[in-house]
Amino acid sequence: MSAITTALRQAMRLDGARGAAVVDYISRMTLGALGDPDGLDLDQAACGDTDVVRAKLSAMELIGYAPTRLEDILITLDTEYHLIRPLIRRTHEGLFLYVVLDRERTELNTVRKELRRIEELL
Residue 59's domain spans which residues? Predict the structure, then answer.
């Protein structure tokens, strides 16, 4: 089993997880995804989120912040959280973890802690 598959399975065990993906924001390619087949199209959402990651990293560069300061990007919707965790603190520059979570069932601090652990798998 690949490290990506292992990481995605761990992410899907998070309370409220609806989907998870590992994405290359340079090529805009989803390297792996797991989620409800009747739910959100993770490939399309992840592809669109590459623009979010690129924009935030560019903004950080403009103000003189190191990219390694970025832990995650949270997008809050009416019923979901979309959490993006760039893997820039590791050797996998250009990748990010993307998790879609049910707002009613998710405790963000716990998810953030678990994503740091999952990042180590990659």
Answer: 3-121
User: Do residues 26 and 54 lie in contact, with contact meaning Cβ atoms separated by under 8 Å?
Assistant: no
Q: How many CB atoms lie within 10 A of CB 65?
A: 12
The total of structural domains in the chain comes to 1
How far, CA to CA in Å, does 61 sit from each of 48, 56, 85, 91?
21, 9, 17, 19
84, amino acid identity: I
User: Whole-model pTM above 0.70?
Assistant: yes
- pLDDT digits 0-9 by tens, 37-86: 677 899 999 999 999 999 999 999 999 999 889 999 999 999 999 999 99
CATH code of the domain covering residue 81: 3.30.450.30
